[in-house]
Amino acid sequence: MENKHQTNVTRFFGSGQNALIVILGIFILYPFLASNYFIDIAFFFGIYALLGLSLNIVLGEVGLFDLGHAGFYAIGAYTTAILNTKFGIPVLLLLPASALAAALFAFAVCSPIIHLRGDYLCIVTIGMGEIVRLALINNPFDLTGGPNGVFGIDFPAVGPFFIIDSSIEFYFFIWLVVGITIAGLLRLQKSRIGRAWNYIREDETAAGAAGINVRYYKLLAFVLGAALAGVAGNIYASKLMCVSPESFTFWESCLMFCIVLIGGMGSIPGVIIGAAFISLFPEIFRPFTMYRMLVFGTVMILMMMFRPGGAWPRKRGGPPFTALLAKTGENDA
Amino acid sequence: MPEPDRRRDSRIILETRELTKIFGGLTAVSGFDLTVHEGEISSLIGPNGAGKTTVFNAVTGIYRPEGGKIIFNNEDITGKKPHQIVAKGIARTFQNIRLFPTMTCLENVMAGQHCRASAGLWASLFRTARQKNEEKRAIEIAESRLRHVRLQEAQNELARNIAYGSQRMLEIARALATEPILLVLDEPSSGLNTRETEDLMAFLKDLIRRENVTILLIEHDMNVVMGISDWVTVMDGGQKIAEGTPEAIYHNPRVIEAYLGTGDEEEA
Questions:
Q1: What ipTM describes this predicted complex?
Q2: Which residues of B touch A326 (CB under 8 A)?
Q3: A307-324 confidence digits (pLDDT tens)
Q4: Could you state, in order of their start, the residue ranges of all structural domains in chain A?
Q5: Do A318 and B175 touch (CB under 8 A)?
Q6: What is the architecture of the domain spanning A14-332?
Q7: Which of the residues B21, B83, B131, B133 would you substitute to probe the A interface, choosing the one with the greatest number of A C-beta atoms within 10 Å?
């Protein structure tokens, strides 16, 4: 029964157990073979994977153009930074708190704009992301430390003895979180919630007429996506031990957007590929820094032209990004 | 005109009272009264721009009417959201087919079962026994509806890849999967060939005989309207100009005038 609507993803992870074991093996062995520098690169690959997965819920599953996702990421990071440095609350305890803060923020900000379609929503989310960043720079209530940000964030401590403080531990920490997230998202994809998201992406009016509470599921996507971005913010803050507004620019939102587009909308393996591309690309091109953005832009253009469904589109189909773009002007009913 | 006995015996399932919908300066529907009796096939006809689809959109919650009331199953549903109206038992199809193109036929039909299930975030994440049962039921109902419209072979095909006529039936299957009391079809035969139209008529007649459902449809094909309707309501210029049995409507001079214009105009 279940085979009938299995996606590429589940087929890959479900029956292709060999592939999974190989990948897991590489992931576990990698930090013991690589230098700290390359372990850190893999850590940031994990952060981008988590951010990509979080935006994928909003952009990939529901088809909502969110170009302000760095705002949620920032809320998570600053929640951790402020509560840890001012009140000494352990960073690990702040993980759910950061998720909650970002989720509540998303709920408050997105409730009034959730009915906007396509490019209209996109513009508003860009504004939202920028407002968050500017607010952080303006140092409200002397909390955010202005352009300098907040320093001296603790490492995550599991009990009194085990503190996550080395590159290798952070590496396992982030990928454990990514792994749990993937497991959860795969389950959601195969539930009525995941399908409801996809129905809305495919045709909002038809989804409503088929009995989907469009507003509720759009908000749920934003809230869940923001919560995951908040988690990423928490881990990022504790890894760097400091946060500043320049880590949460519009450019970060763009990178997340690219991760989802490169990988394939709504495709979880796609997001991982996209995150790998975004985080490894600058390293590969380090010798030719000057041409990096040129190549990056060319790659994006070529992607849109020749593989609009992404590098690893979800097997069931999954719309190419261009199809969603074409729909954005549609404002009937 | 005398009402047929059948209509007098059954209760009213859907009623619009003084329904009015205004777009900017244009009054698309003004003071429109419609009654649909339980267990009948009721047609809403009228020339292009008469306001038929607007009435449908108001009844199914896509538009909020400026005036009037919509009573369904003895309950005022005016201004309710589409998904709430579906949950109450009105399911619809669209004039220009609206499916979920890059999802499978089975997933398309399963959409109808969404409002009959309740699993939330936690139940879906942790796969509770109840959630599994709901999923199983949704798949079973969707499969049986696909069989009903003879699309079981195509259940894993993407909706955009199946033939046009099949897409129409798939949309009807999706509507039926919501377990509706009232099925609202907006021009179900448009774009279908003669053969497919006949199949559709047989399908609807069979549906109304076998299941506890009422059908309201907009239709341009007079063969369909005369062939399957128990009752016909005629609209023109946002108002009701006539209603009655198909035979009565067929000979009604006002209806003929609305469709063909008066003799004078034709001369001019």
A1: 0.90
A2: none
A3: 878 878 887 655 666 676
A4: 14-332
A5: no
A6: Orthogonal Bundle (1.10)
A7: B83
